[in-house]
Design brief:
Elements (H helix, E strand, L loop, with lengths): L2 E6 L5 H11 L6 E7 L5 E6 L2 H10 L6 E7 L14 E2 L3 E9 L2 H10 L11 H12 L4 H11 L2 E9 L2 E10 L4 E4 L4 E4 L2 H4 L5 E4 L5 E4 L4 E4 L11 E2 L15 H7 L1 H10 L13 H9 L3 E5 L1 H17 L4 E5 H7 L8 E6 L5 H12 L3 E6 L5 H4 L3 E4 L12 H21 L4 H28 L1 H9 L4 E6 L3 H16 L2 E6 L16 E5 L7 H12 L4 E6 L1 H7 L5 E4 L8 H20 L17
Parallel strand pairs: 15-16, 15-17, 17-18, 18-19, 20-21, 20-22, 22-23, 23-24
Antiparallel strand pairs: 1-4, 1-10, 2-3, 2-4, 5-6, 6-7, 7-8, 8-12, 9-10, 9-11, 11-14, 12-13
Helix pairs in contact: 3-4, 4-5, 8-14, 8-15, 10-14, 10-17, 11-12, 14-15, 14-20, 15-20, 16-20, 17-20
Bound molecules: 2-deoxy-2-amino glucitol-6-phosphate (AGP).
2-deoxy-2-amino glucitol-6-phosphate binds next to helix 10.
């Protein structure tokens, strides 16, 4: 949610600010802007829409400066217009901000009473005017910034530059991330290490409540009590290389096609190829072994991965689980068991709802285990135990390979603890581990088959004009149905819901008519296949047009009831969620492309959600 970058150098910083913003565009792409200093007044250029619009403006009227800040926005307060784009500035100060200032209305009223004129609908503008007000009262930039920070409520990261101070940036972190990069004779700040990686490998992550004064020579970090603090400087593992689309039309498609390889990498990090044994770090296993309950918490796609894992942990490892979306969990203040384990799943590792729920669980004395994809994230740093999914950078806003690698990791965890607890036999475990090892090849077969038959593409051509769709599944495939609906909503803007197939008759079946395609996930070897088959027929009897995703036997049984079919290989029910995720991704992708939406950067979304 909004990306921040700042550079102090001896050279013109504008091109590198733009390059940094291109690496931060996943955090928001409503509008973007930069402000620079070159010995005179603040100069800034902002543009509505994609970063390319800012690039085009700067090509016509370049900015030059040796100090500068940049921002890519995901709108919270005020629409995505050029006026509302950051940096926000007065004559004396320019500000970029990620997060929300919750008390902005009161601050705005106070400033308006002092005859300050506001030009935007944003919460951020109050920061610029507050600082300006303190500067006008004779305070130094540091004093003005500190006095301003002290008055802000909410979660935010802020960076500012000041007229007449070409060797100064002041920043702070309160709830949303900010990192400092150390160069030679130049210094940087940014929302994440990914943006800093092409500029420097030496990075320091601010902690909540930290403020920082940056010059070309050094960074001084201090707390809100004005005490200087040292934060470790790390060598980042992020690559400075740019992730491209290769020969693919969209990142989403590329990432769908990467799944055989990244699931293979993730599996290889857990399964010994020589003997097929799953190896999980002992500290993780012993935390799982001793916990009276696992609390699974995440948002969006990662939450659906947790939902699948709940079935695995309960059915296979016989561990009681509780599960919730992070934004609800945190505020319902649930009591937590002594010695409990809380498991967090996040692609970005920066999702603020998830992070806040993690902090709540920490306060409740839980051991925190996280499964994250992006390295060096805040969630990783605040966890006791961490496992990485090896999906590599996921650029498409709609999560695909992150989901299947999360499932892969959770499957290995559940299997491993089930074996350790003796709730499955060694033989059962090795049968499932072997099935897991087949998954990359099976996904490759699904992708090859799609290349050959263009089946999902053809189905998309039939359904892309639908207003609504339903996705049905039972048991382990119920969460996959939810994920299928989320995927479709995100990239095609078609309203879709995922339902437990058995729940439809308790209400939503009233929606069924021949205008609403229903996707049914029903592998024949699932223990509940017969029941799902009955549910499918109940819908067909009411005029529903069904897309059946099933295996050979499922097709033989149900093909006469389905208008469309996607047949995939037989697989063990335990691993079916990983395999069945792929056709629903392909359907969402092709529907979106057929509709002509912006697949990789769908409207209103951002890849990393760092506001509550
Ligand atoms: C998935 O397609 C979404 N874009 C979204 O639901 C995402 O999974 C959610 O915001 C959680 O993100 P995280 O995994 O980075 O924490």
């Amino acid at each position: 949610m909004c990306g921040i970058i700042g550079i102090l150098s001896k050279e013109n910083v504008a091109p590198r600010l733009i390059e940094g913003l291109s690496r931060l565009e996943y955090r928001g792409y409503d509008s973007a802007g930069i402000a620079v200093l070159n010995g005179g007044p603040i100069q800034r250029t902002r543009a509505k829409g994609k970063l390319q619009n800012l690039r085009d403006k700067l090509k016509e009227n370049p900015l030059h400066g040796t100090a500068g800040i940049g921002h890519t926005r995901w709108a919270t307060h005020g629409g995505p217009t050029e006026d509302n784009a950051h940096p926000h500035a007065t004559e004396k100060v320019a500000v970029v901000h990620n997060g929300i200032i919750e008390n902005y209305a009161a601050l705005k009223a106070e400033l308006t009473a002092k005859q300050v004129r506001f030009e935007t609908d944003t919460d951020t503008e109050v920061i610029a005017h507050l600082v300006d007000d303190y500067l006008k009262s004779g305070h130094s930039p540091k004093e003005a910034a500190d006095k301003t920070f002290a008055r802000l409520e909410g979660a935010y990261a802020i960076v500012m530059i000041f007229t007449g101070e070409d060797n100064l940036m002041i920043g702070c972190r309160q709830g949303t991330p900010l990192a400092v990069g150390y160069g030679t004779g130049e210094m940087f700040v940014a929302s994440d290490s990914y943006a800093l990686a092409p500029l420097t490998k030496k990075i320091c992550f601010l902690e909540d409540g930290d403020r920082v004064i940056v010059s070309r020579e050094k960074a001084t970090i201090y707390t809100n009590d004005n005490d200087n603090v040292e934060r470790p400087i790390r060598i980042t593992a992020q690559s400075g290389a740019t992730t491209g689309k290769g020969n693919f039309r969209h990142f989403m498609l590329k990432e769908i096609y990467e799944q055989p390889s990244v699931i293979g990498d993730t599996l290889n990090s857990f399964i010994n190829p020589a003997n097929g044994e799953i190896t999980i770090p002992p500290a993780v296993l012993s935390a799982l072994e001793t916990t009276p309950r696992i609390t699974l918490i995440a948002c969006g796609t990662a939450y659906y991965a947790c939902m699948v894992a709940k079935y695995w942990f309960e059915q296979t490892a016989r561990i009681p689980c509780e599960i919730d979306i992070a934004s609800e969990f945190r505020y319902r203040e649930p009591p937590m068991p002594e010695g409990g384990l809380a498991l967090f799943v996040s692609q970005s590792g920066e999702t603020l709802d998830t992070l806040q729920a993690l902090r709540y669980c920490k306060q409740q004395g839980q051991t925190i285990l996280s499964i994250v994809n992006a390295v060096e994230s805040t969630i990783e740093r605040e966890s006791d135990l961490v496992l990485h999914t090896l999906a590599g950078p996921e650029i498409g806003v709609a999560s695909t390979k992150a989901f299947t690698t999360q499932l892969t990791t959770l499957a290995c965890l559940a299997l491993s603890i089930a074996l350790k607890k003796g709730t499955i036999t060694a033989e059962q475990s090795s049968v499932i581990a072997e099935e897991l090892r087949h998954i990359p090849a099976q996904i490759q077969t699904i992708l090859n088959e799609e290349e050959r038959s263009k089946n999902a593409l053809t189905i998309a051509g039939d359904i892309f004009k639908s207003q609504d769709m339903l996705y049905l599944g039972r048991n382990l495939l119920y969460p996959v149905a939810m994920e299928g609906a989320l995927k479709l909503k995100e990239v095609s803007y078609i309203h879709a819901e995922g339902y437990a197939a058995g729940e439809l008759k308790h209400g939503p079946i009233a929606l069924i008519d021949d205008n609403m395609p229903i996707v049914v996930l029903a592998p024949a070897n699932d223990p509940l296949f017969e029941k799902t088959a009955s549910n499918l027929q109940e819908n067909v009897a009411r005029g529903a047009k069904v897309l059946l995703i099933s295996d050979k036997k499922g097709h033989e049984t149900l093909k006469d009831f389905a208008k469309w079919t996607i047949e995939i290989q037989d697989t063990h029910p335990f691993v079916a969620p990983i395999l069945y995720a792929v056709p629903i991704q392909l359907i969402a992708y092709h529907v979106a492309v057929t509709k002509g939406t912006d697949v990789d950067q769908p409207r209103n979304l951002a890849k990393s959600v760092t506001v509550e």
